[in-house]
Design brief:
The protein is an alpha+beta fold and 121 residues long. It contains one helix and eight strands; from the N terminus they run H-E-E-E-E-E-E-E-E. The strands form two sheets. The chain has a four-stranded antiparallel sheet with strand order 1-2-3-4, with no helix packed on it. The radius of gyration is 22 Å and the shape is elongated.
């Protein structure tokens, strides 16, 4: 390989490496598990629960404890959000006010519990 080809090879390699750093891969934990109430939308982003007004605007994070939250669901009256939380290696159901606060643990089962939806009662 001559010197000119080595320079071109080096430049192409440098461009490829730079491109991967300038344009990182999309996070697969983007907006997931959305639920809609009369006035708000809740969803999981990066393992935490977020809420935004239904007509749009800035979302705010409701949860940030160590662990992963998933499947947030509004209560029928829209005042609470129940979700599956994995904080100690086991998935349990938790509830918190829709505008934020301390999550309250609902289930203490040894196996994984997953929030699917609220019942009307």
């Amino acid at each position: 390989m001559n010197k000119k080809n080595m320079i071109w090879f080096g430049l192409v390699l440098l461009l490829l490496v730079s491109y991967t750093h300038l344009y990182p891969q999309v996070n697969a934990k983007m907006l997931r598990y959305p639920d809609v109430s009369g006035t708000h939308i809740c969803f999981v982003y990066a393992g935490d629960i977020w809420v935004v007004e239904k007509q749009g605007g800035l979302a705010h994070k409701l949860s940030s404890p160590k662990g992963e939250e998933s499947f947030p669901r509004f209560s029928p009256d829209g005042l609470h959000i129940a979700f599956t939380g994995n904080y100690d290696g086991n998935e349990d159901i938790y509830v918190l006010p829709f505008m934020g606060g301390e999550p309250q643990r609902v289930t203490y089962h040894g196996l994984s519990d997953r929030m699917m939806d609220w019942t009307s009662d």
